Amino acid sequence: MQTPIPTRPSSLELPQKSSRVVRKLKTPGSDSDSPNPIIRMPKDKSPKVVDRKSPRNTTIEKKKPTKLSELETQVSNLQDELKKVKDQLGSTESSRRRAKLDAEEAKKHLVATSAKLEQTQRQLDELTESDDSRVQELRKISQDRDRAWQSELEALQKQQSFETATLASAMNEAQKFKAQLERVSQSARAEIQSLRDELSETLDLVEKLREEVNESQENEARAREEVTRAEMELEVLKSVKAVKSDDSLASELEESKNRVRTLEELVGKMSAEVKEAPFSENDESELKNEVCRLRAELEAAEKRYRDEYIQSTLEIRSAYELVETAKSEFSQREAELEAELEELRASGKENELERIELKKLETQLRSVIEENETLKSEIEKNKIERSKENDEVLMKIGSLADEAAKSSKKAERVAEELDATQVSNSEMEAELRRLKVQSDQWRKAAEAAAAMLSSVNNGKYVERSGSMEHHTIGRKLDSEHSDDTDDDESPKKWNGNVLKKIGVLLKKGQK
């Protein structure tokens, strides 16, 4: 009994049979470059295979050559597809190698950048620590200097108020003395007029008057000697006071100039050293010692100035006391003369000699009045000189205050510059921290991308080689072609997306 004729095999069965034939036959016409070489079956051997499979069916024998030709075309198509797949694998491998090289270069760049960033961070930390300590010390020094200058200005203001008070008191005393001298001169003029009227009454007492006149002349000589001595003492005191005041003012002026120069040099050095390089501990100690020394010299100069001022005021007071004693002696002498004139008035004797003596007395009184006027003029001159000296002292005090204000402004500018440098350092530190964070992000992204690239490329290569070795030719050509193209294009797309992400991160970091 014959077996029934089998129906037409499906499209799935034909590739399976052809794949068996291809695996068994190995002819020299196959491609040597492909990993799975496919050999074309010769036409003269195909009837043997067909006879062995189905020797009874004549219709199948007629159709076998057409099927074999179709299989050969399919095999050739498969060989072309294998070449394409091989080319795609080579391009994928080269792209993977390039991606690995790019990832290694990115790693090296990130390592170098992180090392540089750590070094700059250490330098910035050191600079910020030194700048903070230096700024604190400079602020303390400037605050101490401001307090010292404030106390000095307050002391100078107090001294100025004291000097103005003493000057006002001296001017009041001079006005009183002037008024007293005017009253004395007026009384003397009135007494002279009364003496002229009463000359007729004094002629009887000529002899007695002569003796009294001699005594009065001796007393006047003594008074003149005392007046000359007082004038000499006043001149000596004025000269000594002028010399001392000039010397003290000159020395104070030189000392103040030297102090101002030293302060300006210190401020210049401080500003230059702040701009150029950080202070060392020796420089800071030297600056502190220099500031202490200058402060001690300034206090010593102020103490000397106060002592000299007190001494000059004491000398002026002693001069005023001498003038007061001279005034009292003059008033006492005038009282004695008035008593003598009253005695002459009481005598009532008139004589030409008495008139002559009285005229002499009048001339003597006039000379005394003139001497009083000269003394008043000298006192006025002394007063004017004293006011000029006080004005000069006030001008010097004002100039010193201006110089102190300028130096304080310079110190404030130095402090502001230090604050600005501190702000710039803080901004630089924030920028470096931001760069460090960005570099860490870049490094992590690059490492993740490199790891993903290496893992994906290795996995795809292994999977593709296994599938090419074990994949049967019996699948459909269309589905196999579509799968291969999708598998080849997917790692390229993924690599392109990863590289785009890395480029975006790098651009963000650069911004």
From TrEMBL:
SUPFAM superfamilies xrefs: PspA lactotransferrin-binding region (SSF161270)
Region (Disordered) location: 1-72, 84-107, 456-495
Composition skew (Basic and acidic residues), residue ranges: 41-70, 94-107, 461-482
Superkingdom of this protein's organism: Eukaryota
Sorted UniProt keywords: Coiled coil
Residue ranges, compositional bias (Polar residues): 1-10
Coiled coil: 167-445
Matches recorded under InterPro entries: ICR
Coiled coil listed as a keyword: yes
Family: Belongs to the ICR family.
The protein's name in its UniProt record: Uncharacterized protein
Organism listed in the record: Castilleja foliolosa
